[in-house]
Amino acid sequence: MCFDFFEKERFDASEFIVLIPLPTRSMLLMIPAHDLIAMYLAIELQSLCFYVIAASKRKSKFSTEAG
């Protein structure tokens, strides 16, 4: 990750330290999923994290609308 970007955009890096590995782990959970409920939960976890990442820039109108 580029910490210069975080400083320029005034992001808190602690949010991204948690929010980047969670979708990655949910993608890894989809690999051994043998039933649809496990696949559904992995996709939902992934999409929830992506919604939070999309809405993380609080002062941007586009980011707020995306969230």
TrEMBL record:
Chief localization: membrane
Residue intervals of the NADH:quinone oxidoreductase/Mrp antiporter transmembrane domain: 33-67
Keyword Phosphoprotein (UniProt): no
Membrane topology, as annotated: Multi-pass membrane protein
Gene Ontology terms: cellular component: membrane; plastid
Record field: transmembrane: 36-54
Cellular localization per UniProt: Membrane
Record-linked Pfam families: Proton_antipo_M
Keywords, alphabetical: Membrane, NAD, Translocase, Transmembrane, Transmembrane helix, Transport
Source organism superkingdom: Eukaryota
Protein name: NADH:quinone oxidoreductase/Mrp antiporter transmembrane domain-containing protein
